[in-house]
Each structure stands twice: as C-alpha cells, then as structure tokens.
Task: structure prediction
Amino acid sequence: MLPLFSSVVHAVSDAVGPIVLAAADAPPEDSLDTEGLAEWLRGFFGPLFLVIVSVVAIFFLFTREITRFVQFVLLAIFIGIVFYVPQIIEVTATALARAVGVPVE
Result:
C-alpha cells in the first residue's frame, strides 16, 4: 500500500508542479498596492500618538508623579523617534555592527 501511495503523490506533484510554477511567475492582477502605506499609517497614527502622549503626560503632572512623568516622556520621545524616523534603526544597527567589527556591505 505504501508504494501505491508514493506513486500517487509523485503523479500529482508532476501534474500540478508546472501549473503552480507558472502561477507563481505571473504577478497577480488584483494585488494590493502598498506603496505609501507607511506614510499613510504615520499620517493616521501620528496625531493619535501625540494626543495619547499629551493626555497621559498631563495626568502625571496633575497627580504630581514627577518621576513617572519623566520616565514616560523619555519613553515617548524614544517611541516617537522610531515612529517618525524609521531609518534610524538601520543607521544605528549599521553603526553598532561596524563598531563591533562586523563587515557591512
């Protein structure tokens, strides 16, 4: 029974293989256009991020939790830099790799 099963699997893979490869080579007609997606997301979530940061910062100031306020502001600045300047991650990683001595292209 096992040789029969393996011959069926080979027959199906031989028949379906060229069809799958031909479909993979052709670009889909209704593919998603993701150009500008990052800019759109930044434009949508950027103001929302600033509003949330402002509300939480004001809450910490009114409750007189200065230590938490400073920690939150520093974290918000770090997240804002990563959010608004995403190239900083690549630049930092390249600089760290060169500092350690890893060859970078």
Notes: Residues 37-62 form the longest helix (26 residues). The chain has a mean pLDDT of 77.
